[in-house]
Amino acid sequence: MTAGVIRVGISGWTYAPWRGVFYPSHVKREQELAYAAGQVRAIEINGTFYAMQRPEVFASWAEQVPAEFVFAVKAPRYITHVLRLRDAQVAVANFIASGLLRLGVHLGPILWQLPANFRFDPPRIERFLKLLPRDTGHAAALGRNHDNRLRAPAWLEVDIRRPMRHALEIRHDSFRCAEFIELLRAHDVALVCADSVAWPRLMDVTADFVYCRLHGSRELYASGYDHAALDEWGQRSKVWARGEEPKSTDRVGGKARARKRDVFVFFDNDMKVRAPANAMELIRRLRA
Protein backbone atom coordinates (compact mmCIF):
# COMPACT_ATOMS: atom_id res chain seq x y z
CA MET A 1 0.00 0.00 0.00
CA THR A 2 1.41 3.38 -1.00
CA ALA A 3 1.29 6.24 1.49
CA GLY A 4 -0.84 9.36 1.36
CA VAL A 5 0.52 12.90 1.23
CA ILE A 6 1.60 14.55 4.49
CA ARG A 7 1.13 18.31 4.59
CA VAL A 8 2.54 20.29 7.49
CA GLY A 9 1.42 23.87 7.87
CA ILE A 10 0.46 26.80 10.08
CA SER A 11 -2.79 28.37 11.21
CA GLY A 12 -2.95 31.84 9.71
CA TRP A 13 -0.04 33.94 8.49
CA THR A 14 -0.71 37.56 9.51
CA TYR A 15 0.90 38.02 12.93
CA ALA A 16 2.88 41.12 13.90
CA PRO A 17 5.34 39.20 16.20
CA TRP A 18 6.38 37.04 13.24
CA ARG A 19 7.77 40.07 11.38
CA GLY A 20 11.53 40.23 11.61
CA VAL A 21 11.59 36.69 13.09
CA PHE A 22 9.84 34.29 10.71
CA TYR A 23 9.42 36.93 8.05
CA PRO A 24 12.74 38.57 7.05
CA SER A 25 12.74 42.33 7.44
CA HIS A 26 12.68 42.86 3.65
CA VAL A 27 9.38 40.95 3.25
CA LYS A 28 6.50 43.41 2.94
CA ARG A 29 3.12 42.65 4.54
CA GLU A 30 1.50 42.00 1.18
CA GLN A 31 4.25 39.45 0.48
CA GLU A 32 3.84 37.47 3.71
CA LEU A 33 1.45 34.85 2.32
CA ALA A 34 3.70 34.11 -0.63
CA TYR A 35 6.71 33.81 1.67
CA ALA A 36 4.93 31.54 4.15
CA ALA A 37 3.58 29.36 1.34
CA GLY A 38 7.15 28.83 0.20
CA GLN A 39 8.11 27.42 3.59
CA VAL A 40 5.16 25.11 4.39
CA ARG A 41 2.78 22.94 2.35
CA ALA A 42 -0.55 24.18 3.70
CA ILE A 43 -2.06 27.05 5.67
CA GLU A 44 -5.35 27.41 7.54
CA ILE A 45 -7.28 30.51 6.52
CA ASN A 46 -8.59 32.09 9.73
CA GLY A 47 -10.20 35.23 8.31
CA THR A 48 -13.19 33.25 7.05
CA PHE A 49 -14.02 32.32 10.65
CA TYR A 50 -14.40 35.93 11.73
CA ALA A 51 -15.97 37.62 8.69
CA MET A 52 -17.49 36.95 5.31
CA GLN A 53 -14.99 37.42 2.49
CA ARG A 54 -15.30 38.45 -1.17
CA PRO A 55 -14.50 36.35 -4.27
CA GLU A 56 -11.59 38.58 -5.23
CA VAL A 57 -9.97 37.96 -1.84
CA PHE A 58 -10.06 34.19 -2.33
CA ALA A 59 -8.69 34.69 -5.86
CA SER A 60 -5.84 36.83 -4.53
CA TRP A 61 -4.90 34.18 -1.98
CA ALA A 62 -4.88 31.49 -4.69
CA GLU A 63 -2.66 33.58 -6.95
CA GLN A 64 0.06 33.94 -4.30
CA VAL A 65 0.80 30.28 -3.59
CA PRO A 66 2.67 27.49 -5.44
CA ALA A 67 0.84 25.05 -7.70
CA GLU A 68 0.80 22.18 -5.19
CA PHE A 69 -0.12 24.32 -2.18
CA VAL A 70 -3.39 23.74 -0.29
CA PHE A 71 -5.49 25.95 1.97
CA ALA A 72 -7.63 24.59 4.76
CA VAL A 73 -10.52 27.02 5.26
CA LYS A 74 -11.99 27.70 8.68
CA ALA A 75 -15.77 27.86 8.43
CA PRO A 76 -17.63 30.91 9.78
CA ARG A 77 -18.21 31.11 13.52
CA TYR A 78 -21.70 32.36 12.66
CA ILE A 79 -22.52 28.77 11.69
CA THR A 80 -20.67 27.00 14.51
CA HIS A 81 -20.96 29.46 17.40
CA VAL A 82 -24.10 31.53 16.72
CA LEU A 83 -26.39 29.12 14.90
CA ARG A 84 -24.63 26.22 16.61
CA LEU A 85 -25.26 24.15 13.45
CA ARG A 86 -29.05 24.70 13.58
CA ASP A 87 -30.90 25.68 10.39
CA ALA A 88 -27.55 26.25 8.72
CA GLN A 89 -28.38 25.73 5.04
CA VAL A 90 -28.53 29.41 4.04
CA ALA A 91 -25.46 30.29 6.12
CA VAL A 92 -23.48 27.46 4.52
CA ALA A 93 -24.70 28.64 1.11
CA ASN A 94 -23.46 32.16 1.90
CA PHE A 95 -20.07 30.78 2.92
CA ILE A 96 -19.76 28.94 -0.38
CA ALA A 97 -21.12 31.78 -2.52
CA SER A 98 -18.77 34.30 -0.89
CA GLY A 99 -15.99 32.98 -3.14
CA LEU A 100 -14.77 29.71 -1.58
CA LEU A 101 -14.69 27.99 -4.98
CA ARG A 102 -12.31 30.63 -6.37
CA LEU A 103 -9.51 28.82 -4.53
CA GLY A 104 -9.78 26.16 -7.25
CA VAL A 105 -7.10 23.48 -6.98
CA HIS A 106 -5.85 25.10 -3.77
CA LEU A 107 -9.07 24.33 -1.86
CA GLY A 108 -8.33 21.81 0.86
CA PRO A 109 -10.40 20.68 3.86
CA ILE A 110 -13.06 22.84 5.45
CA LEU A 111 -12.51 23.12 9.20
CA TRP A 112 -15.64 23.29 11.37
CA GLN A 113 -14.58 24.28 14.90
CA LEU A 114 -17.25 23.90 17.60
CA PRO A 115 -17.28 26.06 20.74
CA ALA A 116 -16.13 24.61 24.05
CA ASN A 117 -19.66 24.58 25.51
CA PHE A 118 -21.17 22.68 22.57
CA ARG A 119 -22.30 19.26 23.83
CA PHE A 120 -22.76 16.17 21.68
CA ASP A 121 -26.26 16.30 20.17
CA PRO A 122 -26.56 13.31 17.78
CA PRO A 123 -29.63 14.48 15.75
CA ARG A 124 -28.22 17.99 15.28
CA ILE A 125 -24.77 16.72 14.32
CA GLU A 126 -26.22 14.22 11.85
CA ARG A 127 -28.45 16.80 10.16
CA PHE A 128 -25.47 19.09 9.74
CA LEU A 129 -23.17 16.38 8.37
CA LYS A 130 -25.81 15.47 5.78
CA LEU A 131 -25.84 19.10 4.63
CA LEU A 132 -22.13 19.34 3.84
CA PRO A 133 -21.21 19.34 0.13
CA ARG A 134 -19.11 16.37 -0.99
CA ASP A 135 -17.73 17.95 -4.16
CA THR A 136 -17.48 21.36 -5.78
CA GLY A 137 -20.47 20.71 -8.03
CA HIS A 138 -22.61 19.93 -5.01
CA ALA A 139 -21.19 23.02 -3.29
CA ALA A 140 -22.11 25.27 -6.23
CA ALA A 141 -25.66 23.93 -6.20
CA LEU A 142 -25.94 24.49 -2.45
CA GLY A 143 -24.46 27.97 -2.81
CA ARG A 144 -27.37 29.05 -4.99
CA ASN A 145 -29.49 29.12 -1.84
CA HIS A 146 -27.58 32.17 -0.58
CA ASP A 147 -29.41 35.26 0.62
CA ASN A 148 -28.63 38.98 0.28
CA ARG A 149 -26.00 39.10 3.04
CA LEU A 150 -23.10 38.56 0.64
CA ARG A 151 -20.55 41.38 0.48
CA ALA A 152 -20.16 40.99 -3.31
CA PRO A 153 -21.88 39.13 -6.16
CA ALA A 154 -21.87 35.36 -5.63
CA TRP A 155 -19.14 33.23 -7.21
CA LEU A 156 -20.38 29.73 -8.02
CA GLU A 157 -18.33 28.73 -11.06
CA VAL A 158 -16.74 25.27 -11.12
CA ASP A 159 -13.98 24.51 -13.62
CA ILE A 160 -13.57 20.85 -12.65
CA ARG A 161 -15.73 18.86 -10.26
CA ARG A 162 -13.42 18.09 -7.33
CA PRO A 163 -14.06 16.23 -4.06
CA MET A 164 -14.45 18.33 -0.93
CA ARG A 165 -13.26 17.33 2.51
CA HIS A 166 -14.56 18.37 5.92
CA ALA A 167 -13.03 18.16 9.41
CA LEU A 168 -14.84 18.71 12.70
CA GLU A 169 -13.05 19.97 15.83
CA ILE A 170 -14.82 19.28 19.13
CA ARG A 171 -14.02 20.88 22.47
CA HIS A 172 -16.36 19.15 24.93
CA ASP A 173 -15.91 15.80 26.68
CA SER A 174 -19.45 14.68 25.80
CA PHE A 175 -18.11 13.81 22.34
CA ARG A 176 -15.97 11.03 23.83
CA CYS A 177 -18.26 8.25 22.64
CA ALA A 178 -18.37 5.61 19.92
CA GLU A 179 -21.69 6.95 18.58
CA PHE A 180 -20.03 10.20 17.55
CA ILE A 181 -17.18 8.37 15.83
CA GLU A 182 -19.61 6.23 13.85
CA LEU A 183 -21.53 9.35 12.76
CA LEU A 184 -18.37 10.91 11.37
CA ARG A 185 -17.39 7.68 9.59
CA ALA A 186 -20.83 7.38 8.03
CA HIS A 187 -20.35 10.79 6.43
CA ASP A 188 -16.58 10.53 5.78
CA VAL A 189 -15.85 13.60 7.93
CA ALA A 190 -12.52 13.75 9.75
CA LEU A 191 -12.35 14.16 13.51
CA VAL A 192 -9.74 16.82 14.25
CA CYS A 193 -6.98 15.49 16.47
CA ALA A 194 -6.48 18.54 18.68
CA ASP A 195 -3.37 18.57 20.85
CA SER A 196 -4.23 20.93 23.67
CA VAL A 197 -4.19 21.34 27.43
CA ALA A 198 -7.80 22.56 27.35
CA TRP A 199 -9.83 20.22 25.13
CA PRO A 200 -10.23 16.49 24.42
CA ARG A 201 -7.53 14.88 22.30
CA LEU A 202 -8.99 12.02 20.28
CA MET A 203 -7.16 10.18 17.53
CA ASP A 204 -10.00 8.18 16.02
CA VAL A 205 -9.58 7.99 12.25
CA THR A 206 -12.97 8.69 10.67
CA ALA A 207 -12.34 9.72 7.05
CA ASP A 208 -10.01 9.25 4.07
CA PHE A 209 -7.66 11.85 5.59
CA VAL A 210 -6.35 12.84 9.02
CA TYR A 211 -6.43 16.42 10.32
CA CYS A 212 -4.33 17.51 13.33
CA ARG A 213 -4.19 20.89 15.07
CA LEU A 214 -1.33 21.35 17.48
CA HIS A 215 -2.39 24.13 19.86
CA GLY A 216 0.40 23.69 22.41
CA SER A 217 0.35 20.76 24.81
CA ARG A 218 1.54 22.70 27.89
CA GLU A 219 0.38 26.29 27.31
CA LEU A 220 -2.52 26.98 24.95
CA TYR A 221 -1.46 28.72 21.72
CA ALA A 222 1.98 29.41 23.17
CA SER A 223 4.12 26.42 24.12
CA GLY A 224 6.42 24.99 21.49
CA TYR A 225 7.10 21.35 20.64
CA ASP A 226 10.53 19.97 21.51
CA HIS A 227 12.51 17.46 19.45
CA ALA A 228 10.95 14.44 21.14
CA ALA A 229 7.42 15.74 20.55
CA LEU A 230 8.15 16.56 16.91
CA ASP A 231 9.59 13.07 16.42
CA GLU A 232 6.39 11.64 17.88
CA TRP A 233 4.10 13.68 15.64
CA GLY A 234 6.26 12.87 12.64
CA GLN A 235 6.01 9.15 13.37
CA ARG A 236 2.25 9.37 13.87
CA SER A 237 1.89 11.18 10.55
CA LYS A 238 3.82 8.50 8.70
CA VAL A 239 1.74 5.73 10.27
CA TRP A 240 -1.53 7.47 9.39
CA ALA A 241 -0.34 8.11 5.82
CA ARG A 242 0.35 4.38 5.41
CA GLY A 243 -3.23 3.64 6.40
CA GLU A 244 -2.41 2.32 9.86
CA GLU A 245 -2.95 3.72 13.35
CA PRO A 246 -0.36 4.60 16.01
CA LYS A 247 0.06 1.94 18.70
CA SER A 248 -0.36 4.43 21.52
CA THR A 249 -3.51 6.27 20.57
CA ASP A 250 -6.47 7.99 22.23
CA ARG A 251 -9.52 6.30 20.70
CA VAL A 252 -13.13 5.91 21.81
CA GLY A 253 -14.36 4.03 18.75
CA GLY A 254 -13.25 0.93 16.91
CA LYS A 255 -10.19 0.79 14.72
CA ALA A 256 -10.56 2.24 11.22
CA ARG A 257 -10.06 0.09 8.15
CA ALA A 258 -6.61 0.24 6.62
CA ARG A 259 -6.22 2.50 3.58
CA LYS A 260 -3.69 5.14 2.68
CA ARG A 261 -4.63 8.58 3.92
CA ASP A 262 -3.50 12.14 3.36
CA VAL A 263 -2.42 13.82 6.60
CA PHE A 264 -2.67 17.50 7.53
CA VAL A 265 -0.76 18.79 10.56
CA PHE A 266 -1.26 22.45 11.46
CA PHE A 267 0.64 24.26 14.20
CA ASP A 268 -1.71 26.69 15.93
CA ASN A 269 0.73 27.72 18.69
CA ASP A 270 1.23 31.09 17.01
CA MET A 271 2.21 33.09 20.11
CA LYS A 272 5.98 33.57 20.62
CA VAL A 273 6.50 32.59 16.96
CA ARG A 274 6.45 28.89 17.82
CA ALA A 275 4.23 27.74 14.95
CA PRO A 276 6.37 28.43 11.87
CA ALA A 277 9.56 27.18 13.53
CA ASN A 278 7.88 23.96 14.68
CA ALA A 279 6.25 23.42 11.28
CA MET A 280 9.50 23.87 9.37
CA GLU A 281 11.34 21.55 11.76
CA LEU A 282 8.70 18.84 11.38
CA ILE A 283 8.89 19.16 7.59
CA ARG A 284 12.67 18.74 7.80
CA ARG A 285 12.29 15.63 9.93
CA LEU A 286 9.74 14.08 7.60
CA ARG A 287 12.12 14.57 4.66
CA ALA A 288 15.09 13.03 6.51
Strand content: 15-25%
Shape: globular
Helix content: 25-40%
Oligomer: single chain
Q: Which second-level CATH architecture applies?
A: Alpha-Beta Barrel
> What is the arithmetic mean of pLDDT?
94
* CATH C-level: Alpha Beta
Structure class: alpha/beta
- Low-pLDDT windows of residues: none
* Integer count of domains: 1
The CATH superfamily bears the name Protein of unknown function UPF0759
- Sketch the major β-sheet: 8 strands, parallel, barrel
Q: What is the tally of helical segments?
A: 10
Distance between the termini: 21 Å
Order of strands in the sheet with most strands:
1-2-3-4-5-6-7-8
How many β-strand stretches?
A: 8
Radius of gyration: 18 Å
CATH topology call: TIM Barrel
Helix-strand topology string = EHEHHEHHEHHEHEEHEH
Brief synopsis:
The chain is an alpha/beta fold. The chain is built from ten helices and eight strands. The chain has a single domain, classed as TIM Barrel (Alpha-Beta Barrel), CATH 3.20.20.410.
What does this protein structure show overall?
There is one protein chain. The protein has 288 residues and is an alpha/beta fold. The protein has one domain (6-287): TIM Barrel, CATH 3.20.20.410. Helices cover 31% and strands 16% of the residues. The chain is built from 10 helices and 8 strands. The chain has helices at residues 32-37, 47-50, 55-63, 77-82, 89-97, 122-131, 136-143, 178-186, 227-241, 274-287; strands spanning 6-11, 42-45, 70-74, 107-113, 166-169, 190-196, 209-216, 262-267. Strands 1-2-3-4-5-6-7-8 form an 8-stranded parallel β-barrel. Helix 6 (122-131) runs parallel beside helix 8 (178-186). It is globular. The protein starts with 5 loop residues before the first strand and ends with a helix. The model has no long low-confidence stretch (mean pLDDT 94).
